[in-house]
Specification:
By secondary structure, the chain is an alpha/beta fold. It is 29% helix and 26% strand. The chain contains 10 helices and 14 strands. The protein has a 5-stranded mixed β-sheet, sandwiched between helices. Strands 8, 9, 10, 12 and 13 form a 5-stranded antiparallel β-sheet that branches. It is elongated, with a radius of gyration of 26 Å. The N terminus is likely disordered.
């Protein structure tokens, strides 16, 4: 009895110890930091702006602090869905005293930049005549598959306070989102006044790539792309044609009437345009369900991107339909399904080649 009592006492002492160790191990696994991926940013800033903020050293300090905000926001906006911790590292390389358009033109043609992954041109004031025509922020492509982000002021008289206005660091995150491969979600919006089909408004998912002014999160679509291209320092080079590749090959439409599949239901596919945020009133394509109450729309990438005529419009920005509105009509009754590109492309991350649409009457 005495020996068994001692053994029981040892077990009672050890059990809490092992339980504490297990909990500690689990906690360490859960809180283990993510691997960090760094992107090196070549920065070219206008002389007038650098001098306005106190000279090169003062400007560099402000730039470093600004990028800490960018990195903090970028990662927190992922809301725990990123597979890595992302860090953009600014490197002030050039202070230019000429038109920022000229600088942009030179860099667009320049190969090289082996020590940097993305270029950032900052122009704090429109102090050259040609700059006003290209005011604003955007991300474009340069030589050697290098992305160039341009932050150009909108004023001839007031310096754009890159470091003092809250939403500017989110604006940089938005432009770097393009660098990572994410499109503008705000271009998918359809305004009710520009919708001659059912007169409804369709709004894209909440995302930094939709509205960075008052949005503090990445959509699941953006998160998927940022994770997918994470290890590439130049996604344009390593993932050629990536945007179009994300589309599934097919869209499978299934129509039920009173719970049963229905043959002969008319399907109209209306295209929407960026910039105009509208729908074209004439269907781009028309289909009809088969005897199984289905229709398989094939060649989906070419429907959205660089679609063949007739387009029923003289102007198609970027030569692509940004969304489609699918209309199903049965005995005068109509049902609608919105097909924005970012939603249809999610099938890429699910390893599927067909996007499923089900419509019930």
């Amino acid at each position: 009895m005495k020996k068994n009592w001692k053994k029981s006492l040892i077990i009672l002492v050890l059990l809490p110890f092992f339980s504490w160790m297990d909990a500690k191990t689990i906690q360490e696994v859960v809180s283990q930091p993510l691997d960090t991926i760094e992107y090196r940013v070549f920065v070219a800033a206008d002389k007038a702006g650098v001098e306005h903020w106190g000279g090169i050293e003062a400007y560099r300090i402000k730039l470093d602090s600004f990028f800490q905000q960018v990195n903090d926001f970028w990662n927190k906006a992922g809301d725990g869905r990123f597979k890595y911790y992302f860090r953009y590292v600014p490197d002030l390389q050039v202070v230019y005293d000429c038109s920022s358009l000229h600088v942009e033109s030179v860099y667009n043609r320049s190969e090289g930049f082996p020590n940097h992954d993305v270029l950032l041109i900052i122009d704090s004031i429109l102090d050259f005549d040609d700059e006003e025509s290209a005011q604003g922020w955007y991300c474009g492509g340069g030589a050697g598959d290098l992305n160039i982000v341009v932050c150009r002021s909108r004023s001839k008289t007031e310096y754009e306070d890159l470091f003092g206005i809250d939403y500017f660091y989110r604006g940089i995150a938005h432009e770097f989102g393009h660098y990572r491969g994410v499109t503008d979600l705000y271009a998918d919006k359809i305004e009710a006044k520009n919708n001659p089909i059912n007169h409804l408004q369709y709004d894209p998912a909440s995302c930094v790539m939709n509205n960075h002014f008052d949005t503090y999160k990445w959509s699941s679509y953006a998160v998927n792309i940022i994770n997918y291209t994470a290890k590439s320092k130049r996604p344009s080079r390593d993932f050629p044609g990536f945007f179009k590749q994300m589309f599934p090959e097919n869209i499978q439409v299934s129509v039920n009437v009173n719970g049963k599949r229905k043959k002969g239901v008319k399907l109209n596919l209306y295209g929407s345009r960026a910039w105009f945020n509208d729908l074209i009133a004439t269907p781009y394509r028309t289909y009809e369900t088969d005897k199984r109450g289905e229709y398989l729309i094939t060649g989906v990438p070419d429907l959205y991107d660089q679609p063949v005529p007739p387009l029923h419009t003289d102007e198609l920005p970027y030569n692509r339909w940004f969304t489609f509105l699918l209309e199903a009509e049965y005995k005068g009754e109509k049902k609608y399904v919105w097909l924005p590109e970012y939603e249809v492309q999610q099938t890429f991350f699910e390893n599927k080649d067909t996007y499923q649409v089900k419509i019930d009457f």
